[in-house]
């Protein structure tokens, strides 16, 4: 497949968890260890500073870099820390909302701040999984762990709510505001719907009218990107779909081998992140080129008008992977090779004269005593009339062939379960992946993720504290030869 050149590979020194393009074209990135770095479009680290905890998100407001940390709370940076606001439960989600921003902590609270760090309001909604706002920031959508979502105005007041059916196990995997104040929500019911609603569906909501319509999709939707006519959906099964909102018609653009992580618009085309690869596609679904990253691609972000940064994560171990910087419009490197066949004159190649060429076809002249020489050789030679016996060990050959193959590991996370909460509405649950195995080797790494894609542990066993509601966890195991497998576990706390 055609590719393009990687302009630069930048080592930051930590597992990258967040990125944002600043107004000057520089790239701000945050790491799992709390390091925040600002890079030029050439990949040079211009500034760097440290916070305590994992960097959850960052963005720019009024020339200030706003940073959210899992332990330190939030702060503003511009050639140094301008202000800092500590949150008792840390920062769990952070999102732009016009010229303001929203912060969700791990205790179910939502805060709104201005660029000066002033707290405008605080509300309690429950465990928040997704946040998004319209362009002006006067309407925001809040997705909850139990499958509900709430629309609020700029004052945090509820203006519309969609409650998940009590008997269903529903989750919201993605949502986005389109022009015209239309909220597009990806919902799924984990195969446990009590009516005729699809398990995986796209819902379109209006602030004034409520739900406008709903469409079925074949797989859980990981990401949504808005278009003039509707949305483009990146699905867990690798399907890339274009949905026209008015007609409710789907256009199947492409099918990838692995789950789609992100869709990034680039001029008239799109960039798609799937597994270790970045693809550029036109709007008819034709792949233009592919670039492979060292790690699983987690983020695509602009770096000025002509460059893009690609962030990846090696899920096997806590090993940092570099930022790849590319120009999506750079010259395509084709994988097709042209072989030029040389033509030769059958009569004369140019290496021999005509006389020499004629002599080459003549039988060699034998010496006069050649018959005596041949007779002497016959007496000394022992001619073996039967062919040699070649012993072949078929089982050994099969064994060697089997060794050349690598079977993927088997993931065992146990059965989905329902557990009772304690008096405080929470409970401790053991996630057990220790029964996973590799049929032809050993397992080298485990990686537990929550339904937001956040890695919570790299051990086979991990205790998690859960509140009431539905929780989905994913375990990825990698064997000693690099093959990986993934499985999910759903836990309902009542």
Brief descriptors of the model:
Immunoglobulin-like, 2 domains, 5-stranded mixed β-sheet, 4-stranded antiparallel β-sheet, 41 strands
Helical content (DSSP H or I, runs of 4+): under 10%
Q: What is the topology, as strand order, of the major beta sheet?
A: 35-41-40-37-38
Q: Could you say what the CATH architecture of the largest domain is?
A: 7 Propeller
How much of the sequence lies in strands comes to over 45%
Q: Main beta sheet, described?
A: 5 strands, mixed
Count of helical regions: 3
How large is the radius of gyration?
31 Å
List the uncertain runs.
337-350, 380-392
Q: Average pLDDT, to the nearest integer?
A: 85
Q: What is the CATH homology-level superfamily of the largest domain?
A: YVTN repeat-like/Quinoprotein amine dehydrogenase
Q: Please indicate the count of domains.
A: 2
CATH class of the largest domain: Mainly Beta
Our measurement of the CA-to-CA distance between the termini, rounded to an integer number of angstroms, reads 50 Å
Description:
Strand 5 and strand 6 (45-50) form a beta hairpin. This protein starts with a strand and ends with a strand. It has 3 helices and 41 strands. Strands 35-41-40-37-38 form a 5-stranded mixed β-sheet, with no helix packed on it. Strands 2-33-32-31 form a 4-stranded antiparallel β-sheet, with no helix packed on it. Strands 3-4-5-6 form a 4-stranded antiparallel β-sheet, with no helix packed on it. 6% of the residues lie in helices and 49% in strands. It folds into 2 domains: 3-328, 7 Propeller (Methylamine Dehydrogenase, Chain H), CATH 2.130.10.10; 417-493, Immunoglobulins (Immunoglobulin-like, Sandwich). With 494 residues, it is mainly β. The longest helix is centred in the last third of the chain and has 11 residues, at 370-380.
